[in-house]
Amino acid sequence: MTSQRGESAVAAKAGRKGLDKSHYLYIAVILAVVLGAVVGLMFPEVGKSLKPLGDGFIKLIKMMIAPVIFCTIVLGIGSIAKAATVGKVGGLALGYFVAMSTFALAIGLVVGNLIHPGEGLKLTPYDPTKKADTNSTVDFLLGIIPGDIPVLPTLLAAILVGFALQKMGKQGAPILTAIGHGQRLVFRILIMIMWLAPVGAFGAIAAVVGATGAQAILSMFTLMLAFYVTCALFIVVILGTLLRAVAGVNIFKLMKYLAREYLLIFSTSSSEAALPRLIAKMEHLGVSKPVVGVTVPTGYSFNLDGTAIYLTMASLFVANAMGTPLDLGAQISLLVFMIIASKGAAGVTGAGLATLAAGLQAHKPELLGGVGMIVGIDRFMSEARALTNFTGNAVATVLIGTWVKEIDNGQVERVLSGSEPFDEQTMIAHGGEEEAAPETETREKATV
After folding, report:
1. In angstroms, rounded to a whole number, what is the distance separating the alpha carbons of residues 384 and 241?
2. Residue 40 pLDDT more than 80?
3. Where does the chain cross the membrane (predicted)?
4. Which of 16, 34, 204, 384 has the fewest CB atoms within 10 Å around its CB?
5. d(CA 321, CA 324)
């Protein structure tokens, strides 16, 4: 665990040497959305003609759905088996994560059904067999992109492969390793595709606003506002109540203790950036190292509360915008699919968008045309997703430490009251920073 934390700390330091490239992508998407909205409002016909840009980006995302689903499900099943073998802590953590992720998905569905985001837009459903009114050059370029692979058969195959590899034991380890390398390759391609997000967002937003006017902008703003409010209520009401009832800890005091991590997450739009700091801070808070060592890394893959809320609300937004709202049965089956498909892809740019597209493809392929709108506002919601995921993992660590009686309540009280503040030098030493000063290393050895 220490070496993993050390690698994360070194990677984090390396990333601080310059502005992260994802910041440029973030800025480009924002500018593309604004420019697309302006073009759609001022020149509606021009905006409509830009629709192939959004369609092409959607086709690229569709191309990656099956590989992403296959790799993440196979490795996810392997991770579940591995975590469950660590005993009571691992089993309890997995049970809690599955329950909370499911609960978060359900909350997203409830809120989505209450506010009906995207209703009234009446966008044209996506039809892969219908030829768009474009010239031969556009048809040729869109035809280069491979067709999608059916999602549900891929999901079934991945589940069977995952359990088969479990049964193979040590013989299956090299195959799992190879699939892990394959997953990194798939995600690298997905990240490359996401650099085209500004182009796709510009075309999609311009086309939608050109067709529907200001109503599209209002609908997207409503979805973003509802998502932020839902995440805030989930943290304060659900997680806060659970934390108070089980551990007697005030959620606001815990959030104040993690304030620097929140700033880091907000600036990077990823909870992964704060992983080594969360481990160090939870240990300093009084949770035992074994509990922290199992709960935090497992939670980063299986406890994605903010992502769960996002997936369901975004799905309902797209369905309503297309004028084909999902009935209760379709919503429940979509929820089950999202529970399975969202595991194992934490912290990967574009993985949430691919999971959303996979769910829509599996249930109603004609809804894929609305994913272009989500591309335009996805980055605006990424901070709330990351902050909610991070808070959920912090709360989970305290709860599981309390349940297994591996937490020092006196230390918790001293730390949260401010009488025993967190030492940044301790975090750096525990993080395994290679360039630590000699006096720091000596101090660490003396402390140990």
Report:
1. 20
2. yes
3. 23-43, 63-81, 93-115, 140-165, 185-211, 217-242, 300-322, 334-358
4. 16
5. 8
pLDDT band at 285, cuts 50/70/90? very high
239 pLDDT higher than 90? yes
pLDDT at 86 over 60: no
Per-residue pLDDT band at 20 (split at 50, 70, 90): low
CB 288, CB 407: distance < 8 Å = yes
- pTM of the predicted protein model: 0.67
Q: How far is 301 from 77, CA to CA, in rounded Å? A: 11
Q: What is the rounded CA–CA span in Å between residue 115 and residue 190?
A: 32
Written as one letter, the residue type at 105 is L
Confidence category of residue 448, pLDDT binned at 50, 70, 90: very low
Q: Give the end-to-end CA distance of the chain in Å, rounded to a whole number.
A: 17
**Position 243, amino acid:** L
For residues 391 and 271, give the distance between their C-alpha atoms in angstroms, rounded to a whole number. 9
